[in-house]
Amino acid sequence: MDVERVVRTHISSNDSVDEVPQDLLEAVRNGQVGLLEIVRALGDYLTSTEDEVRVKGITLLSNVLDKAPAARINRQGTQVLTSFYCDKLEDHECVPSTLKGLVVLTKLPTFGAGEASQVFRSLAGNFKSKSHVQSTRHIVFLLVDALLAKHLSAMKTLGDEFVSGYIKLAEGEKDPRNLILAFGIGRVILIEFDPYKHLDDMFDIIFCYFPITFRPPPNDPYNITPKDLQEALRGAMSATPRFAPMAMPLFLEKLPASLGESKKDVLRGLTACLPVFGGRAVQGYASDLWDALRTEIFYSPDAEIEKEALLTLKTLIATLYPDTPETKAADLALEIIKECQAELKEPEKSKAKPATKVLMTCVHASSLIGSYALSQVLPQLFRMYHEDSEIPKRGPILSAIADLVKSVREVYTAEGTTRSHETERTIEKYRDELLSLMSSGIDSRAQDCRLPGLQGAEHLVNIPGFLGAEEVTYLVSKIDGVLTTREPEALQNEALKTLSAISALTTRPIEEHTLPLLFDQLPGEAPALSDEKSRYYIRQVLESLATLCVQPGLFEALHLRLVRQFAGLCEGSTSTDNENMDVEEDAIRKECQVAFAYSLLHAIRTTLQRKIALKHHDIAKHYEHLVPRLYSIFIEGARTDRSIANDPRLMAEGAAVVMIMTQTLASNQQASHATTLFEALRNSDLIRLAGKHGIAEAHAGIGPLKEDASVNEQNLVILITADAAGLRPESLLCDLNAVLQSLLQWAIHKATSQVQVISVCHLMASLINKRAQDLEPFLSSARRDLWSLCEATQPLVFRRALTMWIWIGRALLVRNHASGLPMIIQVFDLFARDNEVASLAGASLSILSDSHGDRILSKENFAIVKTLYKQRLFSSLLPLMIEGSKTRQGSAQTPYLLALGSTIAIIPQGLIISHLAELLPLIMRGLALPNAEIRYNMLRMLSSILEVEGTAETGTLLRSQAKSLADVLVVTATDLREESSSPRTRIAALACLSILPDTIRYDVLHTVKTKVLKELARAIDDPKRAVRREAVVCRSKWFTFGGAGT
Amino acid sequence: MTSKTLDNSNPTVHATLSQAHAEKPVSQSALLANVWKTSNDDPQEQDSDMEWVKSAVSQEETGKPLAFIGNTEREDIDELEVFDLLRSITDPEHPLTLEQLAVVSPSQIHVSNKQGGERILIEFTPTIPHCSMATLIGLTLRVRLLRSLPPKYKVDIRIKEGMHQSENAVNKQLNDKERVQAALENAHLLGVVEGCLSSADNRGNAGGGVLVA
């Protein structure tokens, strides 16, 4: 190949500089042409007087070098090329391309120590940082970084020459991308070279950037955050103890002078440097540093700065007083502790809190200083509590003590700590005093003593190995007192937290003392309707029980006791004790009773859910005691009209418990249970499910599907549904076609209430989802039958058939079954029918977003759920909805809007955003529909659209619609008509309206500001408190929008 | 920060036990809605697992249970609600809330909801009798209530009797519409007021105040 010709053509052609002739590259790759040949061919061009020609020449060489295989360049070639490039560094124009070549060379295995030194010398001698652009300087830093990484010893031989050379290269650098590298290099130099001769210069090129005030430009493509820079700089600053004499004065000067983020950076810098500088070097500055830190801790209004300052203080103390036998608490520590003691003489004042935090920091920092601090402060606080203090001060005193105990607890329980109570015994001698103060705090009548008392007790309990069994029992008895009196929420919660902590350590005192007390608090009958207080208290007791009984040892006591009480309530309700009772009064009493019974079942369910969240494995073993018992209670109830057990809401709660229990059964247990369940259903022999609790003779022949079943018996289907929904697909072994067929017929023609219909739909959906592959016979007949019923005119039958149609569709969709989507699309055919049918069809699509459906068809229930089904579904539905409402006028649009509004909550946001231009008008029209639920859904979606940071396109779109949006939202927020609005809708509208000032520029909306504020004056007068609350937030936002002004 | 001398550099901090809003439903429908609550924490709490039954029952053609009559009772603005509006305002001098400094408290608020004569009286207590911030605090309360209470209420803001050396002058200033208006035209003053108000919507939740420059 004629290299010279190729090179000549390339240089003289108009090809861009970076292009490489392909044939040349190919020839180098397969070894026909050596690199040195190219250098030779370039010959005159490399020394041409025309800049352009030289640059083109050297760039060609560097590019070929970059693309050539490393094996093609031998040791000698490397040497020659290195020398060549080093010489070229003198040529200012060619420097960028030369550097590029050098970067390639340094990566070669044949690039040795000699070359490394040569490259660095040449770089240091010739490269003038100030006359090159950022990208060129960046290559230099990369080059130095590579030299240090691969040829550290060669660089070390250069020694001071390297350091001074580098200082010249790095001086005055301003670009964050380069600085990140420079800080890293600085750290290596400081650690590896110990450049004491150039220490001042090194200090200058590092500390001159401190503290960093860099703000990245918006949408910074390099993604360098201030945090990255700060961390890199901190690494360099803390690389050597030799910096201490220069750095400490600088820190002391910067700390009071800086603000906000920079102040935090200074504090973090100190925290990083102090341990490296060491106690001896820091000693002289310690007192001044404490002065500065004290200002931050005691006066800073910024909690984060306070936190950083405390962290620095901790490091300072740990540095000054290391954990060695010869360390003594002296000077500064004594001074700090004394100051805090003085502040704590007025424990109720605002400075007492930071003083306590400082003392806590002492405990955290060092075992020695910590125990000294506690030995000074705790006796003082004890004395104050007992002797000279007025009652109002006791709370703050206890609070300070509790905080100090907390710090001890934190130290001993920190991850990976070596400190423990056994080894330090810091608070051992205060054991009795602490226990008695905390319990007297808990017993106290003053509320502000009880809270710190409880908190202190919790901390004491959580110090590993501190309290003995007797002491714990003693505390439990005290805390029980709080739990069983009618105390404010905050105290109750704290008491509960403490007891929970105890129950995790030992359940005995809880089981023996606390639980019986709590159970005794539950009344035998529901409180009267007007007795809000008792109900509040019952909720508190049940919440306590549901929290404590999560522990494996305690759950049994809970469900046995609560189910017994539940059974009692159901039985008690069967007899009417007063014949003369007025009908309404009776109904109200019954409602209270149902709600109370419900709260008992709900407590069991809450506890179960918490256990599941904690992955407890002891749930299944309670199955035999819990589930058959519940069945027997509900079956017994179904025999009589009076029993509250017949209330579908109660039954649904019982069913929810059953569902969780069934989920926890093992596969084989489930399989046999499934057989029993479906047989019992088919033969109307539900009593089999009650196990030993059922009285077979009395309850023979009870079942929801029975020909002459009463409404109450029919309602039992709710339990069956929940039970079956918890079964695994592989446990459903029997043939389900017949079961489903009879359920379908029953739900359409026999069911007597909507609850029954929906419940059966849930059951069918669950079964179809899990076993669709075996159910083709049923599915094809069901599709035919149901659709013909959908054509029917009888409204009830139509409604039921449609409901079931969509539920089946959903069950299939979720598992990506082929017939799911067509079934849903078919619903749109109904939109062409008369208004009533069409609207019902549109609104019925809400079944697709029904949240209980998610629960039935969930992974916990072993349903087959494909993740992307919503994406598939709505990529088909959304165009239908948009198209439908676009091409139609007036009320013909309504079903499409209803369909959109009923499903919008589950439409993937990406889809919404990509169709936003078409959807926004529909959403606004939907907001005018007289339907509170639809409006609510639309508003929620609108809020989430406004909240995401969309593309420029969506931004423009939203801006152009912002004014009309504000109008519609104000109208919705102040709409009090009961049929079209609900508090929930109004709150959602206000929340949405509150987002506008954050996302839309003021100049777009300033014309509507006055109007919005005026209209919101009505919203802050809403009849509902929760709405007013949101309205106040919204109105404040609008007042300050675009600058204040009343 | 410390170079500036504060009127009261180490004020007493009061415990702020959270107070659940004392719901006092009087109507039967409100009570009936309440019996189904399962948690004391969240007044808006809804047991979503139960919703399907409730909505199905409510669709029933006949025999709706009592709880579905709907709770449309008006919840009147009361002392606690007004206190809730004011509690989290930041003190102009400390990063503490007016509640923590006991400048405002529910017992110092009086609300009358008599139709046509709706009135609210706020009495506030400066932390010390010579507090130069009293007018500013009063003005902040005034602005907050102007923005967040329905205009039908006539609002009086006063210093609690005997708690400030120049209480008459301050009271006069705070209840004179024109003087309040004039004060708010001062951009700097309004800026300070906005600063104090920026934490107002925490409403006793997120503890502590917010940086006030």
TrEMBL record, chain A:
<keyword id="KW-0227">DNA damage</keyword>
<dbReference type="GO" id="GO:0051604">
    <property type="term" value="P:protein maturation"/>
</dbReference>
<keyword id="KW-0677">Repeat</keyword>
<comment type="function">
    <text>Key component of the cytosolic iron-sulfur protein assembly (CIA) complex, a multiprotein complex that mediates the incorporation of iron-sulfur cluster into apoproteins specifically involved in DNA metabolism and genomic integrity. In the CIA complex, MMS19 acts as an adapter between early-acting CIA components and a subset of cellular target iron-sulfur proteins.</text>
</comment>
<dbReference type="GO" id="GO:0005634">
    <property type="term" value="C:nucleus"/>
</dbReference>
<dbReference type="InterPro" id="IPR024687">
    <property type="entry name" value="MMS19_C"/>
</dbReference>
<dbReference type="InterPro" id="IPR016024">
    <property type="entry name" value="ARM-type_fold"/>
</dbReference>
<feature type="domain" description="MMS19 N-terminal">
    <location>
        <begin position="39"/>
        <end position="298"/>
    </location>
</feature>
<dbReference type="GO" id="GO:0006281">
    <property type="term" value="P:DNA repair"/>
</dbReference>
<comment type="similarity">
    <text>Belongs to the MET18/MMS19 family.</text>
</comment>
<dbReference type="GO" id="GO:0097361">
    <property type="term" value="C:cytosolic [4Fe-4S] assembly targeting complex"/>
</dbReference>
<dbReference type="InterPro" id="IPR011989">
    <property type="entry name" value="ARM-like"/>
</dbReference>
<keyword id="KW-0234">DNA repair</keyword>
<dbReference type="GO" id="GO:0016226">
    <property type="term" value="P:iron-sulfur cluster assembly"/>
</dbReference>
<dbReference type="InterPro" id="IPR029240">
    <property type="entry name" value="MMS19_N"/>
</dbReference>
<feature type="domain" description="MMS19 C-terminal">
    <location>
        <begin position="541"/>
        <end position="997"/>
    </location>
</feature>
<dbReference type="Pfam" id="PF12460">
    <property type="entry name" value="MMS19_C"/>
</dbReference>
<keyword id="KW-0539">Nucleus</keyword>
<protein>
    <recommendedName>
        <fullName>MMS19 nucleotide excision repair protein</fullName>
    </recommendedName>
</protein>
<dbReference type="Pfam" id="PF14500">
    <property type="entry name" value="MMS19_N"/>
</dbReference>
<dbReference type="InterPro" id="IPR039920">
    <property type="entry name" value="MMS19"/>
</dbReference>
From TrEMBL, chain B:
<dbReference type="Pfam" id="PF01883">
    <property type="entry name" value="FeS_assembly_P"/>
</dbReference>
<dbReference type="GO" id="GO:0051604">
    <property type="term" value="P:protein maturation"/>
</dbReference>
<dbReference type="GO" id="GO:1990229">
    <property type="term" value="C:iron-sulfur cluster assembly complex"/>
</dbReference>
<feature type="region of interest" description="Disordered">
    <location>
        <begin position="1"/>
        <end position="25"/>
    </location>
</feature>
<protein>
    <recommendedName>
        <fullName>MIP18 family-like domain-containing protein</fullName>
    </recommendedName>
</protein>
<keyword id="KW-0159">Chromosome partition</keyword>
<dbReference type="InterPro" id="IPR039796">
    <property type="entry name" value="MIP18"/>
</dbReference>
<dbReference type="InterPro" id="IPR034904">
    <property type="entry name" value="FSCA_dom_sf"/>
</dbReference>
<dbReference type="GO" id="GO:0140535">
    <property type="term" value="C:intracellular protein-containing complex"/>
</dbReference>
<feature type="compositionally biased region" description="Polar residues">
    <location>
        <begin position="1"/>
        <end position="19"/>
    </location>
</feature>
<comment type="similarity">
    <text>Belongs to the MIP18 family.</text>
</comment>
<feature type="domain" description="MIP18 family-like">
    <location>
        <begin position="81"/>
        <end position="155"/>
    </location>
</feature>
<dbReference type="InterPro" id="IPR002744">
    <property type="entry name" value="MIP18-like"/>
</dbReference>
<dbReference type="GO" id="GO:0007059">
    <property type="term" value="P:chromosome segregation"/>
</dbReference>
